[in-house]
Structure formats: structure tokens, C-alpha cells
Amino acid sequence: MTADTHAASPLDSLRAAYAGRLWSEPADMAPFLTDWRGKWTGPALAVAQPADTAEVAQLLAWCHAHGVPVVPQGGNTGLSGGSVPEAAGQHLPLLLSLTRMHRVRQVDALNNTLVVEAGATLQQVQDAARAAGRLFPLSLAAEGSCTIGGNLATNAGGVQVLRYGNARELCLGLEVVTPEGEVWNGLRTLRKDNTGYDLRDLYIGSEGTLGVITAAVLKLFPLPAAQVAALVAVPSPGEALQLLALAQQRLGASLTAFELLSDTCLSLVLQHVPGARRPLAEASPWYVLLEVSVTGAEEGATDQAQQAIEGVLEAAMEAGWVADAALSATLAQFEALWALRENISEAQGAEGPTIKHDIALPISRIPDFIAHTDAAVAAAFPGLRQVVFGHLGDGNLHYNASPAISSPDAAGRAAFLALEAPLNRLVHDAVHAAGGSISAEHGLGVLRRDESARYKAPLELLLMQRIKAALDPAGLMNPAKLLPETPVAHRP
Amino acid sequence: MTADTHAASPLDSLRAAYAGRLWSEPADMAPFLTDWRGKWTGPALAVAQPADTAEVAQLLAWCHAHGVPVVPQGGNTGLSGGSVPEAAGQHLPLLLSLTRMHRVRQVDALNNTLVVEAGATLQQVQDAARAAGRLFPLSLAAEGSCTIGGNLATNAGGVQVLRYGNARELCLGLEVVTPEGEVWNGLRTLRKDNTGYDLRDLYIGSEGTLGVITAAVLKLFPLPAAQVAALVAVPSPGEALQLLALAQQRLGASLTAFELLSDTCLSLVLQHVPGARRPLAEASPWYVLLEVSVTGAEEGATDQAQQAIEGVLEAAMEAGWVADAALSATLAQFEALWALRENISEAQGAEGPTIKHDIALPISRIPDFIAHTDAAVAAAFPGLRQVVFGHLGDGNLHYNASPAISSPDAAGRAAFLALEAPLNRLVHDAVHAAGGSISAEHGLGVLRRDESARYKAPLELLLMQRIKAALDPAGLMNPAKLLPETPVAHRP
């Protein structure tokens, strides 16, 4: 790690400084250098898989000393290209895979906390909590392979945000290795700590551009005694919104999910997912999937949850907001109803290429937004199908599109994908005009980096650039992600 | 605002640049320059009371151009001296009082959000939410005079954190004026927004040292249909902790408060607060005050809440954790039980001077912490009474002390107050050893600034100094608060 090693090959110098697992053959590195959807790929100097925080620190110190960029990676399941090297970086980066660091360091059931290393999968975290008789509520499609470090680096969302919040709200403390290779131990297992700036929330959601999250303290919750789901037919998103307000008022925190999906979404699932069955006799333009979780004694808990839902649905039917509903009575039915929602992305993928928008809006504006934007999209882009679903309770829509005809040929695919940029522009302009966000839960990565900068005020970008410069002065951490490369002009 | 105005008196230049309300006579300024407990006081160039965000921006731009420090102030009810000028600052600051900015800009009941200016009192915010049929749950003793801007600047806590979180968790967006006098509009009314660094949470809790919060988007919740409180006699904090775990498992999110108080605290309230009555036949060394809130229809809601508490207490009595309990059946009884907890500080004040510690610990370690620290304090400082209470559900204790004899004479007061520094050291060393925080909800201000720096790792202080330098490069915002003045030595 002396200056003269710079003269030799950087890889030799890295090998000399770091005795841990290091891949440099193209075949070994390949799985780390392309995202899982095959949309982004970029070269690396090497792939390191450190075994512990000390090794991460050693690697980052070496990178800092040699001016080598670092691309941190968890499960490589991101949707915005944040976890692979940029295609045309000036300097080859070290890809830092955290997946070998997956130890649960501590579970404190009385304190409702769990300390875990960044490379543990979300599923492993959920399992460790359950083994202690507790719930870790973060839940999303990739949970079997995404890592908790990646979830925190991107502030992941999912289907339980309505009740429990995003990844940020489920984290009490972090351990972070700085770009200089120093270890910040912020692993506080405390619910309250007002002793200075909130470094934790700055690293959360920073997509690896400020440092490397190596461990985290997570909040645990009591396990629910029972959960009941209901698929509810509603005429339009407007009635879904009325139902949401009523359900929140009546059910409070026991309302743990409130999802919206169009009949287009449900039909795709029924068509493509083996075993999927329509739970209601008649089709409806829109559906709500809601979930109620109750605490307390297990005996009678399912009945209690069902009665709570039925009370809400009766009032909603009287008001004309709800046409029909199916409630789960068993765990199998509960899982079957959820599968209708969770398999939408997969079913949409079976139809051919997709264009996705992960948007957030003030919840009260969603019905108008859908009505106006659907009409504008239909007028401007007659050649596509709108596939709209999402977490209505959080104001988060996956406002997606598929080709009009399923499984198009090469020319059809190309024609559809040529719509991506103008469709993004139309949808995101509408989101911006409604006071929304163009990345609700997927982060910016490279996919939304420049679009986001287009909508942000120059002052906000300037403040972010200053923070980047303050915490990563050499600019080595996950280059070209989250913030545009061109520095924003400084203001007076 | 040209350079040559510097030659004239700064006050004349400020008057010329700013047409709003400005006080510079000592008698007019006095109420703003000393904190409400009279512990800290410092001089100012002038006191400005801007009417809107544009005026705040104008004032900060002038201060920036003239190198004049700025001390932002809300209701001036803080406990750590953060809201008044430092006594011995090198340059006289402008005191910026936000109290004239108290407009509710927007209430969106369907989106469960409220946009309000920083100078509104917490009570005004609660009232505006209630007028829209919603709950804003932040609640603390000073709510009639503290401002929401101050609550956010210090990340205030209070009695409902267990269910709803601190001020930080109740805020979706901010408007901030930077030290350069520019306005950052981060007033997003969104539940999810992953488009860059979390500026919001960085300004929250920064105690006015990075910029001035001028408005905020707050989260609203359904109003509960009924609330029931119970005062529960427990033999020791250990049994209180067992009761907490059971209550969380059985009651989930309907458990909205879980407070611990010693018999010393209750006795002080019974002695000093007119109308206070002991609700249980026999005294107990410790008590829990818990609160259950239920949603849904109002009819039968109180019964439902009582039954829920009774179910938990029966099981706890069988386990030997609970000796006796009193439940509220009416609103008057509910308020009377809460008054026993809320009047502890006032009752303690009636005994003479106080030494306070606002500490947080891993909840599971609290019984051991109290046992060991009580013994250590008793051994080292036989001449004082320990007055221990707090938010057990959040791991936050107000670990206070009073003189052994009430209303001591001047010599007795002086002798007691001489114990402050060594007692702080003993208690805070114990907190630090247990992985706790020496400021759970009161912030650092000047009171805990240097003590906090003593316990923090140099790297953490360095990261905070870098953020300070990035967002307030001229070092004008609330000087000498939160961070020690001496810069931390930079590391390699």
C-alpha cells in the first residue's frame, strides 16, 4: 500500500494488500458485472468478496490510496442499474460483493432489534426474526436473493410500507465503511438518539455513493396472530380511495396492506400463472387487495380479522364503492389472493417487453392522475397496453406498459421499445406536475439519474453535490449513479 | 446589500435591506435572548420576526453577505440552550424568531397530510389536524408554546413515540432557507420518494446549524375512537419490562404509550399538584402508565379498550408481574391518570433545583441499568434523591435528581448544584457503557455539546463536521450549538 506499488499492475498491488477472495478472470467476474435483467453491464478491475468489515475497510483503503473506484453490490436485484459498473467509466472499478457477509450478529427480542451484516438476504433476516418470535416486516418480490444492505442502500419499499414504513423506517443504526476505509460504528440499538446529524438516514438511500453499509440494526415487531386478505371489486380508483379512507379510519394500524390493480393486471396473471383462479364471479375494471393483521391470542384471531374487514366492506357496499369481495378463510386462500398481486410483474413479462414507471403521488390525486394520464397515453401511444397496479395506501403506482399484441416479433419489440423515452417523458411530466416522484421505491441508479435531475430544482442538486463532495471527496464511490456526473454550477 | 454598506453600522444596513419587524432595543430583545428556564443568555445584533419565507431568505442573504451569524428560534422552550445566542460569541448574531409564521398552508385529509409554517405551535398543528377529523400525534408538555419548526429542528419526542415515532417520523417534507438565503422547496406530500440523498432527515434534528426550517409537511392519522389509560403497580423495572413485552404482543399498535415512574415521582406529584389523588390503595415501588387507543366505531370502543387492557393485566398478575391496577372509565379519569405522569417535572421543580438526564438505552438493559446506576449514585452522592421516570416503551428515561431535603437554602442549593458535573459524568459514563445515548429527545444545544463529543468516535464527529462545512461553509448558522467549535483533526 505504498506509493510505488502504483507503478506495478493495480491488480498485483491489490492481491498483495488483500488476502481475501478476489476474482479477476472474465468468466468468474461475469455474474457480477451485469444486472439480473441484462439491461446494464460494465467492466471491472476485479471482484472482491470480503468476509468481514475489516476486509471491506482494507479494500476501500487500498482503492482510496490508488484512486480506484468502488461499486458495492448486494444481491444484484435492483431495477435501476445501480449495482453494476458503468459501461464507459474512465477507471476500472473494484466490484465489492457483500454476499459473503451474512452473519446475524445479535437478536434482542426484548429490545425488538436484530443486528445483521449487509450481505444477508432479506429472507434470512425475516427468518432470523421469526426464529426469535418476531416479525421483520420488509417484504418484496426479490426477498430470496436481495440483501438487506441493498435494501437499505436503496431504501426499498414493498407491500407492508403502509403499516411499517420503508427500509429507512425499519433501521435504527448502521455500520458503514467510508471511502477512506474507516469504519463508522453507528450500530445503536436505540429508538431515540438526538446527538447530532442524522448520518444513518443519509447513508440509507444513497445507493452506495457515499460509503459501504456493512451491517445494520433492524426494528422487529410482534408476530401477528392472524392475517386475512380480501380481493375487492371497485368501479374505479376513485372508489378505491374512498375505501382506503374508510378502512384506515375503521381498522387503524391493523390495515397492513392496501394494493390497487386493474382488470388488465388480473387477466394477465390468470392467463400466465399456473393455478391462478379468478376469485370473484364477475370481472371488475379495478380491484383492491387489502390485508388485515391482528395481534393478541391466536384463538379467534382469524374470525376477528374477517369481521373487521366485513364491517368495512358492508359500509362500502352501502355507499356504492364496492361491488363484490372475496375474503381468505385459510392460509392457502390468503396466499392465493396475494399471488394474484405478486405475480403481476412476472405475468406482464410473459407478454413481451415492458416499460415501467415506479411513481409516487399524493394519494388524494391518484384517481385524477390515472384518468388523465391513461387518456393522454392512449391518445399519444395507441400501440400499447397500460398495466397499472401498485401500493395505493402509499401513493405508489407501478404505472407500466406492454405491447398491444403479446409476444411481438423483433420489429414489434423494437417499435414498442422506441416508445420508452417519449412515454417516460409524458408520464414523468404528469407526475411532476402533480407534485409526485419519478422513483418511489426503486431508486435512481443510472436508469432515472438524468431524468430525476431534469425535474429537481438546481438548489436541491447543488445540496446533494455538496454532500457527495463532503463524504466522498475523491469521488470514488459508485461513480455515475444517483447524481449526474456534470457538477451543478455553484451559486453565489 | 452592496459591499460598502459594511462600512456603516450593520444595523443600519440591515434596516435598509429588510423592511419587516426588527427589534434592537434591549428591552424589546430581552425575551428572545434568554431561555425559559433562565439558564442561558447571550447578546444579539437585533431580533427579526419575518412574516414569510421570502423575508427569511432576505434576512439570511443579508447575514451571509455581511458575515453575521444567525440564531433561529421557535417557541424558545428547548431544554438544551439551543435557541438563544451564545454568551461569548465573537460576532453579534441576528436572532431570527419564526413565531409570526404560523399559517396552515394546506390540509389534505384524503392524503393524510398537513402543510404548516414553522412558527405554528404544536397545539395549533394538533388543532388543525383535529378540525380535519385527523390526529397529529406529536405531544409533549410544552405543546402550547413550542413551535413545530423547533420540534423538527430538535427531532422532539414525547409520550406517543412508541406508536407514532419522533418528529422525524411524522414529517414527509420540508421547506428550508439555506445559509446563503436560498429557498429549498422540499415540501413533498409523498409517502415514498427515492430520488437522491435524504436532505429532509439531515435538516431534522440539526438544531438550526445547517439552515432554517420555514415550513413542513406533516403526517396525519385517523382519530382514535376511544382511549383508555391504566396505572399499574409493578415491583420493579424488570416486571415493567415483562409487562411491556406482553402488552406489545397482545395489543400491537393499539398500545400507544408505556411510561414508567417510581413511587418517588408519584409522591412528589401527590404532594405538589392540587387535586392529584393516589389511584391505587397501596403504594408500590414502581408504576407503569399505559395507554390503549382503538379505532373503528365509537360505540363500545371504550369497553373494547378496557377489555384489551384487562386481558393483558390478568395474564401479568398471574405471572406475578403486576400487583394492582386502576383503569380509566371516563375522559376525566383518563386525564387524571395522565396528569400523574405529566406533572412529574413540575412537581420535581417545586422541591428545589434539579439535575436532569435525558437518556436512551436498549430497552432490554433498562432494569439492570437502573439497579446498578441507582446504587452507584447513592454510594457516590448520598445527599440527593433520585427521581426516575420516562418513556419505557422507547427506552428513554428522564433519570433526574433532586436535593435530599426540599426547598434547600442558598448553601444547600449551591451544594446540590455542585454535584451536577460529577453526577453527569457518572450517569453518562454508565449510559455510554450500556450502548445508550446521552440525549434521547432534548438535543445537544450547548448543554450536551461537549459531553456528547466526549463519547462519540472521532470519525463520527469528523463526518458531522464535514456535513456542517458542506451546508454552512461560512459557519454562520447557530454557532457553538450541537458540534464543538474546535474542528476535529482530519484523518488520512
From TrEMBL, chains A, B:
Single GO biological process annotation from the record: respiratory electron transport chain
Coiled-coil region: none
Superkingdom as given in the UniProt entry: Bacteria
Listed transmembrane segments: none
InterPro entries noted in UniProt: FAD-bd_oxidored_4_C, FAD-bd_PCMH, FAD-bd_PCMH-like_sf, FAD-bd_PCMH_sub1, FAD-bd_PCMH_sub2, FAD-linked_Oxase-like_C, FAD-oxidored/transferase_4, Oxid_FAD_bind_N
Keywords: FAD, Flavoprotein
Cofactor annotation: FAD
Residue ranges of domain FAD-binding PCMH-type in the record: 40-223
GO molecular function: catalytic activity; FAD binding
Sequence similarity: Belongs to the FAD-binding oxidoreductase/transferase type 4 family.
The protein's name in its UniProt record: FAD/FMN-containing dehydrogenase
Species classification: Bacteria, Pseudomonadati, Pseudomonadota, Betaproteobacteria, Burkholderiales
